[in-house]
Every structure is written in structure tokens, then in C-alpha cells.
Write a structure and sequence with these properties.
The protein has 497 residues and is α+β, with helices and mostly antiparallel strands. 48% of the residues lie in helices and 19% in strands. It is rod-shaped and about 120 Å long.
Length: 497
């Protein structure tokens, strides 16, 4: 927007705190290269446009805002003379994108001293060479540090995830190894029992009946009902009594295996009616080995399936062999992240999923959203752990208009009100030195806001802290694949307003 150009008075601009120490010659140069401009209420410049001017307010009221998702969020409002905004980084030249970092509007007729960006860059380098060098060092040094620590943050998260995944894989793998060793032993005993049966007085018909019983027993194992502890204990007592009454040695040891396989006294009566009384102990022993091998094979199947699911979750989390940007079911991403972090979450934190499965898939960078979930879950787990008590982590999804809400609610101690506005600042952390980089929430903010055009906000009270991610349900008209290692949008340090 262009305002009304007015005469520039060196005496007037000298009254602004930025220029009060300048010489008459310097003030004259500013007036010669710059201008005084009056704007009616309305926009002055727009975020993302080429940064062509540096603005210093002489009188009036200005408002700065940032585009967050589909909304303009006010980040500053003031009527203080001398505040400045606009082409703040012009002195860096083409080493950084020279665009406005926010939008500025005025709410009443407002006058500015306006200096072209190139003139601002020239006077910075000529009049304040040491200050310009210091500012350059601070800008690029801070960005390099932020990138390095951001990479470290990712590596720490990867290490934590790897440790959790290793722990989760170890349990089913160890179970499969144990079951395989036990299965080898049982198969060996089955071969020995088969040789014993072959040498016994079994008729052809009795052997056929025994084999049929064996097959039907294996089928019952696959369909065994799940009993309560009390039901299982009662059935074990019944089977143990039946085995003892029929002269089966160590019936108390066999009974739990038969109960686990879904066998009952009616089934054993059927077996007893099929084989001769003197052959019953051998038949029961043979069926016991059959049941044990079936149960062990089920255990191996369950363990290897669990391993396969963990590997699938790891692939889902890392998004290997997937397009970097695609339409995704956010619940799949949440589930894979929770599974990857299950070792760190531990048994003292109950995870509650309140998913609205009716919400549609969203266009996203899934690998980066997983990083956001990781950071938010990790923070919630650490906060709950700091209380020394058991807690609950609730993950909720819902539709809010044209956006998808993903909420992480933890029962930690809460975020004090005096630091709540700073938690998304780079390097800000409440964790002890060495335990936090202060970039987890900053990185999350960049990914959600800059890359997905969404919003990330927090509500907190003791025992109830909620981080809420809102993602657009449709892709923006233009793809602004913003580098998540650039400034996050908290430009209050770069704009005086």
C-alpha cells in the first residue's frame, strides 16, 4: 500500500530514539534518501512480499500480525513513537530471503519515516560497520547453532526411539527363542513316545482312533476359549481329579496344559472311551505332547507376528519408501509413534486413545508429523514423571470445522503462567542443563505452522496440560515448503513493535 508522501524534516526524525545520536549530515542523508509517508487506516505491507522498506513510526498506531494456518494472528500492537519494522535484515543482502516476516497495518492515520531497504543496508554498513558485523555474526551464528542443536535433538529422539524399539523387540524375540527350544525338546519326546506306542499293543483301529483324537485335539487348541483365572483354576482341579482317578501319573502337572488348550473332562471321557484302559496313560501322554507343541507353535506365531508389527510400526514411523508429502490417516501415525515410544512411556503412565475415526485423511509430511508427536509425547511423559506419581496421557482427535485437531493431554504439574508464552522460543527449556535442548517445541512449531499451515497451541493447569495441533483438511493452493531450520515466526526479537 502506498501512502501520502510528505516533506521530511531532519529535526523531526532526530527526535526518534533510533536517530537521536546522529550528526546533522547523517540526518540530512536520511531525509535525502528516505521520506515521510502518511497512511490511512489499513494495510501497509504484507507478510511474504519483497522487503523494500524500513519503517519507523512517527505518530499513530501500528499492528503486526503473522499468518498461522488460515488465520492472521496479531503479534504486536503499539502507539509508541520510534518503533520500527520492515526490512530489518536488509544489511545481510542476498544471503537471506529479503521478504517481510509479518504483515503491518495501521488502525488510524499514521506517519512513518520510510527508508528504502538498500539505503538502510548502506548506512548500516557505512556508519556502524562493527555493529553490522556483530549482528551478522549473531544472526548466522544463532542459525548455525540452532541447526546443529536441532540435528542433535533429532539424534537424541532417534536414540530414545531405538532404545525403546530394541526393548520392545527383545521381549517377543526372547519368547520365540524360548518357545523354539521348548518345542525342539517336546518334538524329541514325541518321537520317543511314538516309538513306544509303535512297540505297544495298539491295534490298527486303536492307532487310527488315537490319530483322529490327536487331530481333533489340535483343532481344539486353535479354538481354545479365554477363561478367567477363577474359571481356569476350577477346571484345572476337575481335570487333575479326573486324571488321578484314571491312574495318570502327575495329573496335576498335565491339567494346566489341557485347560490352556481348551480341553475338559468330557473330552477326556471321549478319549477314555476310544482306547483300552491299559493304553490310556500312553494316549494321555501322547496328547499332552501334542497340546504342548501346538501351544508352543502358537507362542512362536504370536511372537513373530509381534516382531513383524513392530517392524511395520518402525517403517510407518520413519516413512521409509514413502512419498515425503501425501494424504495420510493421522491415527496410523499416532499409533506408530506411541508404539515406538512405549518403552519410554512405561507402565506407570496409562495411554488413553480418544480417536474420532470419522475424520478424513489429511495432506501432510508424515515423517515430520511423527517428529511432532514424538516431541509432544516426550514432553508429556517427562512432565508426568516429574510428579513421581502414576499418570495418564490422553491422545484425542476430532474435527473442528475445516481442520483436524490432534490433542495431547497429560496429567503433569502444568506450565507456569509466567513462562507459558516462551515455551515455543528456540533454546528455552525448563529441564536441567544437559537434559533438554529447548528446541523440541520450536521444531514442532515450525513443522506444524510453517510446513503444514496449521497451528500449535497450549492450555495448561496443574494436572491438565493440553498441546493442541490443528491441521488443514485440504492442501493450500500453493505449496510453501518452508525450511524448518529458519526462524519460527516469533519475530519479536527482529521487530521492535
Amino acid at each position: 500500500m502506498t501512502g501520502q508522501v510528505m516533506p521530511c524534516s531532519p529535526q523531526e526524525i532526530a527526535s526518534l530514539f533510533l536517530f537521536e545520536k546522529l550528526s546533522p549530515e547523517q540526518l540530512g542523508r536520511l531525509c535525502a534518501e528516505g521520506r515521510t509517508e502518511r497512511f490511512e487506516a489499513g494495510p501497509v505491507y504484507t507478510e511474504g512480499d519483497p522487503a523494500t522498506c524500513f519503517y519507523v513510526m512517527i505518530e499513530g498506531t501500528v499492528v503486526l500480525s503473522r499468518r498461522v494456518g488460515g488465520d492472521d494472528v496479531e503479534v504486536g500492537r503499539t502507539s509508541q513513537r520510534g518503533v520500527y519494522a520492515g526490512a530489518m535484515q536488509a544489511y545481510l543482502g542476498d544471503r537471506v530471503p529479503q521478504t517481510y516476516n509479518n504483515s503491518m497495518r495501521v488502525t488510524e492515520p499514521t506517519r512513518f519515516f520510510v527508508l528504502p531497504a538498500q539505503s538502510f543496508a548502506d548506512v548500516m554498513r557505512e556508519w556502524f560497520p562493527m555493529a553490522a558485523h556483530l549482528l551478522e555474526g549473531l544472526f548466522f551464528g544463532s542459525r548455525s547453532t540452532q541447526q546443529a542443536i536441532g540435528q542433535r535433538e533429532r539424534l537424541l529422539a532417534l536414540g530414545s526411539l531405538s532404545a525403546g524399539l530394541t526393548h520392545e523387540l527383545n521381549n517377543p524375540a526372547a519368547a520365540a527363542v524360548r518357545a523354539t527350544a521348548a518345542l525342539r525338546e517336546r518334538v524329541g519326546k514325541m518321537r520317543h513316545k511314538l516309538a513306544h506306542i509303535a512297540q505297544g499293543n495298539y491295534s490298527r483301529e486303536a492307532l487310527a482312533d488315537l490319530i483322529e483324537i490327536q487331530e481333533r485335539t489340535a483343532e481344539r487348541v486353535a479354538k481354545a476359549p479365554v477363561l478367567s483365572p477363577l474359571e481356569a483354576s476350577d477346571r484345572e482341579d476337575e481335570l487333575a481329579d479326573w486324571l488321578e482317578d484314571h491312574g495318570i501319573a502327575e495329573g496335576w502337572r498335565i491339567a494346566p496344559t489341557f485347560v490352556q488348550a481348551g480341553l475338559d473332562t468330557d473330552w477326556l471321557e471321549h478319549v477314555a472311551a476310544t482306547v483300552a484302559e491299559d493304553l490310556l496313560p500312553g494316549a494321555i501322554g501322547w496328547l499332552n505332547y501334542t497340546v504342548e507343541t501346538e501351544l508352543l507353535m502358537d507362542e512362536i506365531d504370536d511372537s513373530t507376528t509381534r516382531i513383524s508389527h513392530l517392524v511395520d510400526a518402525a517403517k510407518q514411523y520413519s516413512q521409509l519408501d514413502r512419498a515425503p508429502h501425501r494424504v495420510v490417516d493421522v491415527h496410523e501415525l499416532l499409533d506408530s509413534t506411541l508404539l515406538m515410544l512405549s518403552g519410554k512411556i512405561g507402565p506407570r503412565i496409562q495411554v488413553v486413545k480418544e480417536y474420532d475415526r470419522s475424520v478424513p485423511d489429511v495432506p501432510a509430511y508424515p515423517a515430520e508429523l511423527n517428529q511432532v508427536w514424538t516431541n509432544l509425547i516426550d514432553n508429556a511423559v517427562s512432565a508426568i514423571g516429574s510428579t513421581g506419581r502414576d499418570g495418564t496421557l490422553t491422545v484425542r482427535t476430532a474435527r473442528e470445522g475445516d481442520r483436524l485437531l490432534v490433542e495431547f493431554r497429560g496429567t503433569g504439574p502444568g506450565i507456569p503462567a509466567d513462562i507459558r508464552s516462551r515455551i515455543f522460543d528456540p533454546f528455552f527449556t525448563t529441564k536441567p542443563v544437559g537434559e533438554g535442548t529447548g528446541l523440541g517445541l520450536d521444531i514442532s512449531w515450525r513443522i506444524v505452522v510453517s510446513k503444514h499451515h496449521g497451528s500449535l497451541q497450549v492450555e495448561s493447569a496443574p494436572g491438565d496440560t493440553r498441546f493442541q495441533v490443528l491441521l488443514p483438511l485440504t492442501a493450500p493452493d500453493t505449496d510453501t515448503d518452508t525450511d524448518t531450520d529458519t526462524e519460527p515466526g516469533n519475530e519479536s526479537t527482529e521487530e521492535s513493535v
